[in-house]
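Q: Sequence in, structure out?
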Amino acid sequence: MTAPAATAENAVWSSLPVPAIWIDGSDHIVDVNPAAEGFFNSSAKALRGEPVWDRLAVDAPLEDSLGRAREQGTALFVNDVDVGTGDRAPLQCNLQVAPLQGAPGAMMLLISPRELAGRMTQSQSAKSAAKSAIGMAEMLAHEIKNPLAGIAGAAQLLSMNLSAEDLEMTDLIVGETRRIVKLLEQVEQFGNLSAPERRAVNIHDVLDRARRSALVGAAAHMKIIEDYDPSLPHVWGDADQLLQVVSNLIRNASEAAGPEGGVIRLHTYYERAFRLRRSDGTGQTLPLQVEVIDDGPGLPEALKGDIFEPFVSGRENGTGLGLALVSKIISDHDGWISVTSVPGRTVFRISLPMVPKGAAADGA
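A: Exactly. Output:
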């Protein structure tokens, strides 16, 4: 069996906007379109002849259903299943399978990722509410910090003439006021973050800076593995802000692991098919992928859908602003961040643009 040969058929095949896989009667890959090459992060040449279920992991008993659809010559639709390739975190997808006309036993499998569109809708609906909440919090932060400083100062003065038993109460007042001030400072930082000063950035330099800093600080008890694509082009971004993003994600993974420690993997790769399309119809290719992967307990189930929203935290005494700040920075870079999490594997994936043509190509 050979791949489509006619010019018109090739044009349609190459233009399909979703990953498409041509499967023969024994469930081996005959061909894939360019979108599927990006999904697998592998060339069509390398994929042809491979057993499809060796390269594709679907969280559903699809093999038997595919066999019945092949025998009956009918189409098969499977919605809301996790689909992965072994090299990337699973995405929630809709699958469509149909017999291929003129090729007995052959089937066409279309993969339509849903995660990105779903999170885009959710992000847009929450954006205005989050902006209003942050604006109000910024105003309150400015007004509250001065009285808090007075309260802490008064408590410290009182403590000079108190017994050891009463000192516990003044220490509590001072400690809590300092905690509130710290939260207010984070709120102000969130609102006052300047626009990125973008230039060509070697993302591996950024990752290395974050790794070295973390290993002598918050992640001293962790093992950090570097898994880089050395041929990755430069990112169009602000090196300091991207360093803040990666450092925050490493710190979160370290805190989630607890004192017993764990492993964090920093993974980079190129995915040419990843494209972000916004509600106004504009879009941008985001081929540069950075993943921060840990083997910790995973995100609380109730927070997975809202983890990037302000004031949402899975940690006791957490402010819920760290990941909201991360999301804001990536958004300001015209990028995208997503997360998939199960116990033992949490993956924060950042998708970033390349340096545009004509821009200065000096590194960070």
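The first strand starts at residue 20 and ends at 23.
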